[in-house]
Design goal:
It contains nine helices and seven strands, in the order βαβαβαβαβααβαααβ. It is of the alpha/beta class. A seven-stranded parallel β-sheet has the order 3-2-1-4-5-6-7, sandwiched between helices. It starts with 8 loop residues before the first strand and ends in a 14-residue tail after the last strand.
Length: 263
């Protein structure tokens, strides 16, 4: 399907993760759709990703940015604005389930909030003048942890709960400008980070089987491609009357009746 994203400037944070991560998958699909990705990330992988994209004759830019540093976010968005003079969509994709729980320090808790939620606010704040001009839209990548809790990750849960609050607040605040604001909620998706986490557990394989067994639709994890597909549809004009929504892409893991899982 042609989503009409050709030549649209899409700012995406956290897109320089490992190959196969959610952000990297979204990035590659933006390229396929002909969009112009503007990546904000702290990892040097972003240089290689953008270089490879540019060698195909496709326009793109990488702004190396520590998103816990407000001045770096402003500089990144200013760089994108100066290069293109427009921003059509923002995808806030930063997310690190960092295990900052009740035993953590104040400084650790605040750092996690800056990374996982405050960065979303700052990217949108600085992109807003150009979003108003383009009547663009905002897509925040959220997590089931905002709705279900997880244990031992207070800061991440608080951040992702805040991200959902911001999503609805912005939908209300910006509706007069024709700007849409939505969130994608992800549960169990197989990514390099998930693989790393499973391998840290003594009973990792059994834990993985237990999780997969509890996913109602197909008893399988959500693929990053499935998440990317929903993301691109949501930021496109194919979803032009959708705002303030939490779109859960999880095979029914969070919301469906657990009686489905009774053997």
């Amino acid at each position: 399907m042609d989503l009409g994203l050709k030549d649209k400037v899409v700012v995406i944070s956290g897109a320089a993760g490992m190959q196969g991560s959610i952000g990297e998958t979204i990035l590659q699909n933006l390229v396929i759709e002909g969009a112009i990705p503007a990546v904000i990330d702290r990892n040097d992988r972003g240089y290689a990703y953008i270089d490879k994209i540019q060698k195909k004759g496709i326009d793109a830019v990488f702004c190396k940015t520590d998103v816990t540093k407000p001045e770096q976010i402003k500089k990144a968005v200013d760089t994108i604005a100066q290069k293109y003079g427009r921003i059509d969509a923002v995808i806030n994709n930063v997310g690190v389930n960092d295990g900052v729980g009740l035993d953590a320090s104040y400084e650790e808790f605040m750092h996690s909030l800056k990374l996982n939620m405050v960065s979303y606010f700052l990217v949108v704040k600085h992109a807003l003048p150009l979003l108003k001009k383009s009547k663009g839209n905002i897509l925040n990548i959220g997590s089931k942890v905002a709705l279900t809790g997880q244990g031992k990750t207070s800061a991440y849960a608080a951040s992702k709960g805040g991200v959902l609050g911001l999503t609805r607040e912005w939908a209300v605040d910006l509706i007069k400008y024709g700007i849409r604001s939505n969130a994608i909620i992800i549960a169990e998706s197989w990514t390099p980070a998930y693989d790393t986490w499973i391998k840290t557990l003594e009973d990792g394989e059994e834990k993985l089987k237990s999780i997969i067994k509890k996913i109602p639709l197909g008893n399988r994890m959500t693929t990053t491609q499935e998440i990317a597909d929903v993301c691109l549809f949501t930021i496109s004009e194919k979803s032009s009357h959708t705002t303030g929504q939490f779109i859960t892409v999880d095979g029914g893991y969070v919301h469906l009746d657990r009686s489905l899982l009774t053997e």
